[in-house]
């Protein structure tokens, strides 16, 4: 089915990045109407938008008046995405102004609306902008947190437009949930850990594991598309930072622990999808370990790492927070995959445990997953083989149900 996308573009330097976003939509077969503001055309001209979308573009309500575009474009849209959204556009949208085609479109649209703000840090942090963002979110719009990084000049800070590919992923995730999808995690702070930790033997060697981070990143994206404020603690993952997600990059289990414990203090939910190494070398050599002339190999003494999931579950700073763990099991002589999962749920003290059967290593690096979500109250939800995104939404459904009551 062709999705009708309205791409609003406003007057910020990041307007050029919207060209790539437009391409992603059109190459995926979507029908895109670009509605730039007059100041957006100072950055990227109308011929570019027209050529890339295959449609005429207008900024005001006086072009093709017979077709009533100021009403029809919004009414017919399946999603409206404003990227980049300037402070000025957020203010006009929050106050319901209708002084150009884009603001008229925002007033007539009944579909999901996504704003991807981009501006200097001071403008983003200004109480006027924050109040406008809060108003738009309260009305059900998805306002993506800007990324931290290089801004227009030599300065860096929060206010950068997230990568177009990641904005596209977020919008696609929203559309996949259907027209009735709500921002049911709006106002919630969630923490997701992803990837596998590295424990160094010396400056160049480490003990690691096969975790790709795909499931954790899918969880972070899914939560962001449902309106949550997401902190992603990412251990050695090569994937791009998801749009609207605050990412903390770590390497070792101790660094992961520090970041997760800090973020957990104010979190409504924590999902530990990372694979922290259970052991680390007791001593880390400051110099590269050399081969011995006699052909002998060094013995590596290991020390057990802290169990982060057990720590945050047993030592709760917020009693009402929902804590979710993952268990990769193969089953053994002592029990089946599910028996071992139930025992682990009780041992760790978390509220939900997502149990994967990893016999044969099928899950690692794969786009798909299949799992059973076990709950501390004895409930179990079977999730058939499907995308990691689909599993992520089932996990957030379970978390949201617990928030609700
Ligand atoms: N986990 C953690 N800290 C660790 C190890 C694991 O927080 N040091 C978390 C993982 O993120 C995951 C869950 O614990 O959510 C289960 O990890 P797993 O390795 O399966 O559990 P272990 O306690 O290591 O149990 P096992 O004896 O089966 O290895």
Structure description:
With 405 residues, the chain is of the alpha/beta class. An eight-stranded mixed sheet has the order 12-11-8-13-16-17-18-19, sandwiched between helices. The two termini are 36 Å apart. 34% of the residues lie in helices and 24% in strands. It is elongated and about 85 Å long. Helix 1 packs across helix 9. The chain is built from 14 helices and 19 strands. The chain has two domains: 173 residues, Flavin prenyltransferase-like (Rossmann fold, 3-Layer(aba) Sandwich), CATH 3.40.50.1950; 216 residues, CoaB-like (Rossmann fold, 3-Layer(aba) Sandwich).
Give keywords.
eight-stranded mixed beta sheet, alpha/beta, 2 domains, 405 residues, Rossmann fold, 14 helices, binds cytidine-5'-triphosphate, five-stranded parallel beta sheet
């Amino acid at each position: 089915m062709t999705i009708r996308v309205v791409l609003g573009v406003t007057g910020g330097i990041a307007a050029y990045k919207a060209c790539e976003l437009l391409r992603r939509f059109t190459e995926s077969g979507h029908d895109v109407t670009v509605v730039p503001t007059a100041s957006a055309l100072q950055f990227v001209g109308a011929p570019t938008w027209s050529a890339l979308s295959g449609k005429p573009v207008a900024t005001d309500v006086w072009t093709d008046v017979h077709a009533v575009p100021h009403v029809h474009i919004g009414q017919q849209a399946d999603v409206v995405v404003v990227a980049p959204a300037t402070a000025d556009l957020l203010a006009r949208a929050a106050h319901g102004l209708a002084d150009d085609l884009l603001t008229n479109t925002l007033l007539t649209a009944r579909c999901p609306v996504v704003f991807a703000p981009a501006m200097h840090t001071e403008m983003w942090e200004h109480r006027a902008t924050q109040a406008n963002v809060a108003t738009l979110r309260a009305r059900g719009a998805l306002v993506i947190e800007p990324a931290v990084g290089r801004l227009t000049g030599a300065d860096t800070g929060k206010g950068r437009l997230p990568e177009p590919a990641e904005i596209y992923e977020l919008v696609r995730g929203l559309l996949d949930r259907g027209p009735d999808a709500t921002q049911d995690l709006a106002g919630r702070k969630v923490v997701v850990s992803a990837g596998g930790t590295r424990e160094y033997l010396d400056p160049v060697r480490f003990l690691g594991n096969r975790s790709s981070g795909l499931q954790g990143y899918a969880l972070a994206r899914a939560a962001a598309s449902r309106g949550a404020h997401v902190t992603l603690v990412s251990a050695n993952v090569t994937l791009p930072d998801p749009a609207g997600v605050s990412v903390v990059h770590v390497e070792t289990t101790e660094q992961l622990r520090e970041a997760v414990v800090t973020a957990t203090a104010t979190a409504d939910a924590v999902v530990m999808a990372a694979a922290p190494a259970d052991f680390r070398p007791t001593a880390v050599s400051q110099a590269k370990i050399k081969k011995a002339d006699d052909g002998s190999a060094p013995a590596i003494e290991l020390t057990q790492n802290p169990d982060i999931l057990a720590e945050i579950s047993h030592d709760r700073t917020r009693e009402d927070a929902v804590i979710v763990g993952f268990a990769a099991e193969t089953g053994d002589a002592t029990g089946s995959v599910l028996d071992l999962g139930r025992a682990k749920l009780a041992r760790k003290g978390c509220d939900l445990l997502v149990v994967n059967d990893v016999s044969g290593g099928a899950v690692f690096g794969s786009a798909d997953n299949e799992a059973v979500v076990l709950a501390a109250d004895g409930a179990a939800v079977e999730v058939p083989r499907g995308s990691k995104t689909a599993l992520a939404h089932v996990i957030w459904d379970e978390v949201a149900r617990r928030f609700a009551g």
